[in-house]
C-alpha cells in the first residue's frame, strides 16, 4: 500500500513567501501536524536565493539584482546562489526517521531525486544522476555551474539543482528545474574581476548546464512540467499525493514569517 503525502501547488509567489512557506511546513511536519509534503511553486517577481552560509558582499551584484527587478532572499539550505525565474521549484519535507530516508545526506538526495528523474522521463527526456569525479574546487557563486552528487544531468549537463538541510528532525530538500534561462540576466547578477572573465564564464555556461526547453522536442509550459513532475514524484517515491490547501489562519502564519524574516535585510544580507 502506497503512503499518502500532502501535495501543495502554490503557483507563483514572492521569494520571501516561498522561503517562509518551506520553513513553516518544516515546523508543522516536525510538530506532527501534517504528513510528509511535496510542494511545487514558481517565483513572481523573479528571485535570487543565496545559500545559508553564502556571502552577498563581493559575490552578488546587488545593484544589478535591483535593476532587473529581482528580489534577493536567503535560504535555510546551503549551497550557492540560484536565479529563480523561468523554472519549476519543488520542496520535499519528510522526517529523518522515515523508514525510506537514509541517514546519509548524499544517499537521501538520491532517494528524493528519483522523483526528479521520473519527472524528466514523463516529459520524454532522458536524464541521469551525476556522480562527480574527484574533488569539486569551483569557487563560483553561481549554483548551476557544477552538478553535485545525485543531481540531474542530461548528456553530462546539469538540468536540476537541489539543496538540503536537516532541522528539528526533518529533511528539507528543495530545488530548481529550469524551463528556460536568460544567460545575460543570470551573469549580470554576479561580480566578476572584469568583463572579459564574465563573458568567458557566460559562454562556457552552455557546456555545463541545460534547460528543459533546450533539450525537449516540443516547448513545455510551467503547467506541463508541473503535471509531469507530480507523476514523477509519485512514481519515483512510490507515494500517492493528496492535494492540501492552507486555511486562512495558516496562510497568515506564512505571510507573517515572510515579512518579519525573509523580507528583512538583516536576514538576507547578514553574511
Keywords:
alpha/beta; BirA Bifunctional Protein, domain 2; 3-stranded mixed sheet; 35% helix
Would you give an account of this structure?
By secondary structure, this protein is an alpha/beta fold. It has a single domain, classed as BirA Bifunctional Protein, domain 2 (2-Layer Sandwich), CATH 3.30.930.10. Helices cover 35% and strands 25% of the residues. It is built from nine helices and eleven strands. It has an eight-stranded mixed beta sheet, with helices on both faces. The chain starts with a strand and ends with a helix.
Query: CATH architecture, please?
Result: 2-Layer Sandwich
Show unreliable segments.
none
Strand percentage lies at 25-35%
**Radius of gyration using CA atoms only:** 18 Å
- By DSSP (H or I, 4+ residues per run), the number of helices equals 9
What distance lies between the first and last C-alpha atoms, to the nearest angstrom? 46 Å
What top-tier CATH class fits best? Alpha Beta
Largest sheet: 8 strands, mixed
Q: What is the average per-residue confidence, as pLDDT, rounded to a whole number?
A: 93
Described by its quaternary structure, the protein is: single chain
Shape: globular
Which secondary-structure class do the elements indicate? alpha/beta
CATH level-4 homologous superfamily: Bira Bifunctional Protein, Domain 2
CATH topology: BirA Bifunctional Protein, domain 2
Number of distinct beta strands: 11
InterPro entries: aa-tRNA-synth_II/BPL/LPL, BPL_LPL_catalytic, Octanoyltrans_LipM/LipL
Keywords: Ligase
Pfam families: LplA-B_cat (PF21948)
GO molecular function, one term: ligase activity
